[in-house]
Amino acid sequence: MHLLSRAAAGVTLAACAMGGTPAPAGAAPHLAPEDRLPAAVTIPTPDYEFELVPHSLPETPDVIVAYVRRTDDVGRGFEDVPDSHGNVRATSWNARSGRRCLTSGGGVFSFDDSADHAFTFGLAGRAVRRVSVVLTDGTRIGVETTDVVAGPFRAWMVERPLGEVARVDGYDQHGRLIATAIPDLPGMTDFARSDGCRPFPFPGTRPALASAAVERTRPASEV
After folding, report:
1. Residue-range domain boundaries for the chain
2. Given a cut of 50, is residue 46 above it in pLDDT?
3. Is 179 helix (H, G, I), strand (E, B) or coil?
4. Best CA proximity match to 84, nearest among 49, 24, 32, 134
């Protein structure tokens, strides 16, 4: 089992709260369906199905983490988070709520048994009903948000062409633009959070740290 995620990962102190132990190389996939958390969005590709599973942290239920993975469990990088099937990447924006909150994460995902695929995903406040991902070359990919699936949030995910994300726009049920998230962290081409999100105040942290990126992938040294 080999996995290389080409979107760089940023890790802050909040990652410690997420827990999880990297699966050893060559570990057999977990395929027991009875303990698998339901996915908010599943996207089929010619090579595999990719799913988004939003789930709250037991220690801080207000913080929702977006876990992504293949439905066949290939490439899972962490054991027992959010369930025994693990995940390929866990992303948190330290956002509690906000009706106009819009977050995004993702990038290019590479597996030995398939072509590269790029996914952008995120959580959105209840007022955001449609999301448009805009790439730096002007390409736009739109998608409806799901029903409320985790706390105050809706979820969304798209497969997009390879490249970089310029911004992500959120629209209300009337088609009005109400939120924009612009990636601005080096090496994290999809990671963004709009001004409409309320940050979660982690105890003992400075505001800048409490609002920083939390995105985790399996390091290349472990493949």
Report:
1. 3-26+36-222
2. yes
3. strand
4. 32
